[in-house]
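hey so u asked for the seq, here:
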Amino acid sequence: MSGKKRILSGMRPTGALHLGNFHGALANWVKMQDEYDCFFFVADWHALTSDYEDPSAIKASSKEMVIDWLSVGLDPDDSTLFVQSSIKEHAELFLILTMLTPVPWLERNPTYKDQIIQLENKDLSTFGFLGYPVLQAADIIMYKANGVPVGVDQVPHVEITREIARRFNYLYTNVFPEPEAILTQTPKLLGLDNRKMSKSYGNTISLSESPEGIRKKVSTMVTDPQRQRKNDPGDPDVCNVFSFHKIYNAKDRVDTINEECRKAGIGCVDCKKEMAEKLIQALAPVQEKRKFFEENPDKVDEIVEAGNAKARKTAVATMEQVRDAIKMS
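ran it, structure tokens below
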């Protein structure tokens, strides 16, 4: 192992990755590869917490997600990419940790309460859904990660992991470091309807979206709600299309659009058309790499198997220590 600190993070394979996934996590993962010893995993068991009734799409989505990761710049020479369910030690550590995790810790998890409300069309009254922070803790401390890259809203998840690691170390022996939350900066990027970009809302632009698809979706984006006609002055500060311009367009052009919008010098239709073309240009190299991996699926399988082998070696060593600690080796 290098002298770098280790980080770990994962994503649930619930469909095509979109711009929200990229700017919310993937872009930071790519940057972190130079600084950290990175472990990134496909959280397919986590997907079962909400999709247990019909898990048929999880396996296909897992491979597609890895292709997206490779396409945006995750490098298997710099990062360990693996599938959670391929490392059975995760299940064993999860089981052990459930024995010592107080239920009130899980019930106070703000995401638990929020998801119950947001996903009211699904029956989430299961032990798996209540206990998924424990599985998440097992995922993290299995690899003795020093940090977990998260947004501010996910800090409570890391705190539960720290509490579980601390309780294990107190009850038995000091096996696990307490991982720190590594706060990542993410640009303000909402979905087509100005809500959070989410597959469940149907308001996303995927990383694999065709140019025609991008143009069509961008044309439906919500802009300044107060601007009813082209000759009305607009407010770029409340326009999500302008948020995209700030990411994908040149700074001098962004400044010009800012000025022109405020004096009705540019209409929303033309503004959207320009932004769509900039987005298409930005995604072109990602989609070119994606095409390579789609045409070479065996290469993707090789990368995942190599990552699984590396992750498994670490997990086996950790579980030997855990079994020793609980006197069940």
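The beta strands are 6-11, 37-42, 79-83, 147-150, 180-183. The longest strand covers residues 6-11.
lmk if thats what u needed
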